[in-house]
Amino acid sequence: MPTRAPRIKPDQKREVVGPTVAARPGVSDPEPPGVYRATIKNWPADERPREKLMLRGAEALSDAELLAILIGSGTGKATALDLARDLVERHGSLRKVSMRSQKDLQSTKGIGPARAVAMLAAFELARRVNLPTSEEVFRITGPADVYRYIGPRLRDLKKERFYILLLNQQNVVIRDVQISEGSLSASIVHPREVFKEAIGESAACIVLIHNHPSGNPEPSGEDRAITRQLVDAGKLMGIPVHDHLIVAGDRFTSFAERGLL
Predict the structure, then answer these.
(1) What is the pTM of this model?
(2) How far apart are CA 83 and CA 253, in angstroms?
(3) Own/partner long-range contacts of 85-89 (Cβ < 8 Å, ≥24 apart)
(4) Which residues of the chain have pLDDT under 70?
(5) Of the candidates 76, 37, 67, 75, the residue with the CA atom closest to the CA atom of residue 49
(6) Looking at the chain, which runs of residues are DSSP E strands?
């Protein structure tokens, strides 16, 4: 007698994944387009994201597979990996997913508050890992060091923020200070606020930094005017401004390198 395909009980969950279906353990031969396949737990061990990571290491996983581990589980009609792939494809890259707000992430079907918050926490941890700790001695020898110190904190922000680095006589960072948030203007980046912090920490010199959310690192007229004002104030105070860095994504512009100080 011909072998009959196993029947699926009503309480068995299977998930829609798209127009084509691959065979998985516990599932009959590939079914016609638009039907169902087994959940991730029924896949071969070397194809499940968690087990694949344990067997081969995190570097062996794709962006979507790593994201699927954070998502945890699928919905009634999509696996966690389907949800992760949808997020990456919708936004263009994992980096762009990491820049989304909780509301943006939840606009993807199947991503609720708990999953969105888990992803936001993981992305923030990744950013913080790249930042120096308070115990580190961080010496500034040029613009690349300034970017390495604070770039990861600023490069993906949606609003402009203005920071100063306070340096000692050996150009070691004492600490960084946020002066303002919002579009730069002389009214919110005032020499009084900048040099109050420098005097309080007995800084020998300072570096100015702010970000351009537009992704364009070119200094604006306002950027140049504020820099001139702060450089002149630094000369009067005996606390020179060594540089002003504009961070725009993975790029930056140094006023010192451009001869604009």
Answers:
(1) 0.56
(2) 38
(3) 86/110, 87/111, 88/63, 88/64
(4) 1-47, 130-136, 184-188
(5) 67
(6) 15-16, 36-37, 161-167, 173-181, 205-211, 241-248, 251-254
